[in-house]
Amino acid sequence: MKYILLIGDGMGDTPVPTLANKTPLQAAHKPTIDRLCAAGEALLVRTVPRGYPPGSDVANLSLLGYEPENCYTGRAPLEAASMGIAVPSNGAAFRCNLVTVRYEGNDRMTMLDYSAGHISTAEAAELIAALQATCGTDKLHFYPGVSYRHLLIHHGAVPEHLRTVPPHDWMDKDVTSLYRQYLASDYLSELLRKAAAVLADHPVNQKRLAAGKKPANGIWLWGEGGKPAMAPLRLRYGVTGSLISAVDLLKGLGVCSGLEVPKVEGATGYLDTNYQGKAEAALTALKTQDFVLVHVEAPDEAGHQGAVRDKVQAIEDFDAKIVAPIAAEMDRRGEDYRLVVTMDHYTPLAKRTHEAWPVPMFLYDSRGIKPSSGVSYTEENIRAQVEESGLGLESGAAFFARFVELEKRHG
């Protein structure tokens, strides 16, 4: 048996006026997803435990069958694991976004774009190198990642007053009070001011401004934490496998859970990602392994941007370029498989941030499921089905055990 988990990050939404009050899932043309859903089992799963922030870190940790209450330490340490960067035992890793902000005097600041206009990885690498050369110390070290997503390793205790937030929750909002938390620490205050000066004068940003693009004129630190302790999936659930994603957070989850993490050239985490390469990597892994997870970031990015058409396109691309080729090839191979399509959390376009609502998903089994849902994959359809079936699961661990048939295999 093969187990295939396909995640469209942030696909879930609420009705959108410009889509005739449909959600993007309802508006999108997604024939393969809808066909598999109609033949599968509808589930509603709480991926974010009560009291936890609805981030992709917590939600995807749950989807892999872990209990965040027992092993979650923060987002950045997972990204550090992906990048092969050690987190010091007496320190922490921070996610370091390159952002576009508006400085307004008296240390007032507005967050204009958490991604600096989805800056390219090559441009970002130049900026991070300049920041390390100018701002790096024996206590602070910058490491380049993908696009706007980077890391800062902090040696020593983090200031106790610091309470960070993800910048994608604050698009077009005043972040002055949040920014002043950093300024309350002498060395972090110096870091941010020096970083802003380096970025303002850098040729990469000068070229971006000349081309009418958003400059990466600030850094934003968040998601800090120490190294997590996670038992491998093969010990918890008896499966081996691979995790395929463009973003370091998911790759780090793969590393920490003992999965292989193949590199896919051209995987960007946005609409221009290498879908074909990701699907091919998944199918290659399934030749020798039990389990594969494929994560697609684009719906979530579109949700944070408030980009309605981009979100619909991201869902349609997910269907046509990930779900369809994987299902078709597995059918051609003639192997038994169980396939789940889900989101990790909602990212409503109207809010441009995450929601912790239980997520709708379906489980398709090539051997057949009776009774099958008989419906297309939308938020409303799955909720209605679960109200009838009672298949609402209170944790990702409960979902994953059901997905890989743990009781059946061990019973």
UniProtKB/TrEMBL annotation:
<dbReference type="GO" id="GO:0006096">
    <property type="term" value="P:glycolytic process"/>
</dbReference>
<protein>
    <submittedName>
        <fullName>Phosphoglycerate mutase</fullName>
        <ecNumber>5.4.2.12</ecNumber>
    </submittedName>
</protein>
<dbReference type="InterPro" id="IPR017850">
    <property type="entry name" value="Alkaline_phosphatase_core_sf"/>
</dbReference>
<dbReference type="InterPro" id="IPR042253">
    <property type="entry name" value="Pglycerate_mutase_ApgM_sf"/>
</dbReference>
<dbReference type="InterPro" id="IPR023665">
    <property type="entry name" value="ApgAM_prokaryotes"/>
</dbReference>
<dbReference type="Pfam" id="PF01676">
    <property type="entry name" value="Metalloenzyme"/>
</dbReference>
<dbReference type="Pfam" id="PF10143">
    <property type="entry name" value="PhosphMutase"/>
</dbReference>
<dbReference type="InterPro" id="IPR004456">
    <property type="entry name" value="Pglycerate_mutase_ApgM"/>
</dbReference>
<comment type="similarity">
    <text>Belongs to the BPG-independent phosphoglycerate mutase family. A-PGAM subfamily.</text>
</comment>
<comment type="function">
    <text>Catalyzes the interconversion of 2-phosphoglycerate and 3-phosphoglycerate.</text>
</comment>
<feature type="domain" description="Metalloenzyme">
    <location>
        <begin position="1"/>
        <end position="370"/>
    </location>
</feature>
<dbReference type="GO" id="GO:0046872">
    <property type="term" value="F:metal ion binding"/>
</dbReference>
<comment type="pathway">
    <text>Carbohydrate degradation.</text>
</comment>
<keyword id="KW-0324">Glycolysis</keyword>
<keyword id="KW-0413">Isomerase</keyword>
<dbReference type="InterPro" id="IPR006124">
    <property type="entry name" value="Metalloenzyme"/>
</dbReference>
<dbReference type="GO" id="GO:0004619">
    <property type="term" value="F:phosphoglycerate mutase activity"/>
</dbReference>
